[in-house]
């Protein structure tokens, strides 16, 4: 009994616990799951997370056209000025920009706000194409180069009700289209491109004069600037023109300058025009039935399908059998149209986008859709818009991608390389590209963030 | 394999001394065909003692799918196939809401996020951007001079691709299924590793202001070899292997000739 009691005592004594917690092995599945469920959940996208609108610019910066002053005058002593911005760079703006236009060394940005300031301009201002920009150093003089988007004061009757619909820029003049107060023009008027009488020996720099145009047959819905002429398209489908006409780009039947906007006739008389385009000395118009009409300079075979002459001063119908045309874009030497199916056809002279072997053609040639990302895998990709610079083309697809091709003058294509691009090449923009404006050596794009 | 009937041994003509037919005990030399003793099965032993098996493009432990192996002479074809730089197709499954250290769902949890705001449209937009930047990389790493007509023609046909070493490039990506929080993508890629695909899933999650982990990586095509040619585990026997090799031989030869000339 003594031995049995002793044994019971030995086993009854509890094991000495060290109190260091549980086993040190790998956590079991249940422990992992519990740890996961207990972890905090982070929220990165707020309830009202909206896609923001942004503006990206690229190209030659010394003219100030990009609107970023640190490229021209660096803010720190050791930084060097950046002559060319070869990839898209964000331009911070206070308001949402709804329309942008690039001229020859200057840019106009417009917003459809009802605030007093609706239009900003940046770049060359030697002919007051950006209005009068009062210099801060000397209050009597104006700036010749504007390095940052600066507000342009428009003489509006109802500044807090009128909205700016669209802006357009030519070589040394600009047009601003409003919804209820007609068209405002400013800049060089030596050929009457601003729609007012040519004054001999007028000094255009530091001029306060902004002219207003209201006499059209109906409301103006689109304004387009050529190099030294202006085109106005009205709601009724008619086209008015004024300015330099030596190549017939005013389309009025003569080769003189016109200083008052005059209606065009010829093959577009009675036709409902839905879009007009011009950048150099040639012009294209698209009707609601899908036909395209052209007039102006034809030295580069732009209108060679209808005539052998190098200047056409009356709008002529271009009989292309490529399908119904939705949009046209006219560059300096080459033209492009977009058909209803989403295909691009190019003709003219220069780098047209079909490799280095195609330099000129009078008949439109289609650019294969596979270059825009179309394949059996993604068969719903097609081009939605086409735009032209002086010797570049830009195409926007329905997926929001931007393709450019043409002469890469001072890095204006935005590809990051300095060589010319002979076939459509994607530009990497952090967002969905909604619109693009092409100039001679720079481009501006309006982008929605993801 | 060793039990299969082998080639008949070579025969040779030897002059053997045999007793003369006429009799008499004198030995004559008579030409007879006798098998070469050196090729006798008992001298040679089993025909295959070891098999040289080479592996094609790598496949992770956590991934599954088509895995190409070369046997014997096929090893040389493997190097040729590698130099063809053909695309591979993967089916990648992912799940939103988690972020782990090795981008797969078995790793250590780092962060959890909300994902209710994600829609199929947003995902497809991100996929379009990925495809765009990779398409640019494809053209840049292919080392063709962009200023030539030849480059234009290849670009039209979609045949431009890097023919030597390059970082991983995705040639096509699309969403097969989308059911929050899970989604499935089909990815066509070059020079990639499965961990790169998992990292891509993670980056897609980040881009959509959430996070994602990869739940499944399955290779459905490796160059010319598809799932139909692949042998499942139940068919890993001699007969099926021989049939598979025979079926693929023509495909491999035509592809190598087409690409490498």
Automatic annotation (TrEMBL), chain A:
Record's keyword terms, sorted: Membrane, Mitochondrion, Mitochondrion inner membrane, Repeat, Transit peptide
Principal localisation: mitochondrion
Domain of life of the organism encoding this protein: Eukaryota
GO cellular component, one term: mitochondrial inner membrane
Intracellular or extracellular location(s): Mitochondrion inner membrane
Ranges occupied by RCC repeats: 53-113, 117-180, 181-236, 237-289, 290-341, 400-449
Domain called RCC1-like: residue spans: 50-332
One of the record's GO molecular function terms: rRNA binding
Pfam families: RCC1, WD40_RLD
InterPro entries (UniProt xref): Mitochondrial_GEF_domain (IPR053035), RCC1-like_dom (IPR058923), RCC1/BLIP-II (IPR009091), Reg_chr_condens (IPR000408)
Keyword Hydrolase annotated: no
Family matches, as PROSITE patterns: RCC1_3
Region (Disordered): 1-32
GO biological processes: mitochondrial fusion; positive regulation of mitochondrial translation
Subunit-structure text: Forms a regulatory protein-RNA complex, consisting of RCC1L, NGRN, RPUSD3, RPUSD4, TRUB2, FASTKD2 and 16S mt-rRNA. Interacts with 16S mt-rRNA; this interaction is direct. Interacts with OPA1; this interaction is direct.
Role of this protein: Guanine nucleotide exchange factor (GEF) for mitochondrial dynamin-related GTPase OPA1. Activates OPA1, by exchanging bound GDP for free GTP, and drives OPA1 and MFN1-dependent mitochondrial fusion. Plays an essential role in mitochondrial ribosome biogenesis. As a component of a functional protein-RNA module, consisting of RCC1L, NGRN, RPUSD3, RPUSD4, TRUB2, FASTKD2 and 16S mitochondrial ribosomal RNA (16S mt-rRNA), controls 16S mt-rRNA abundance and is required for intra-mitochondrial translation of core subunits of the oxidative phosphorylation system.
PANTHER family in UniProt: RCC1-LIKE G EXCHANGING FACTOR-LIKE PROTEIN
Descriptive protein name: RCC1-like G exchanging factor-like protein
Gene from which the chain derives: Rcc1l
UniProtKB/TrEMBL annotation, chain B:
Stored InterPro entries: PsdUridine_synth_cat_dom_sf (IPR020103), PsdUridine_synth_N (IPR002501), Trub2 (IPR039048)
Gene Ontology terms for molecular function: pseudouridine synthase activity; RNA binding
SUPFAM superfamilies: Pseudouridine synthase
One GO-annotated biological process of the protein: RNA processing
Any Pfam family hit: TruB_N
Residue ranges annotated for the Pseudouridine synthase II N-terminal domain, each copy included: 50-193
Family the UniProt entry places it in: Belongs to the pseudouridine synthase TruB family.
Listed name of the protein: TRUB2 synthase
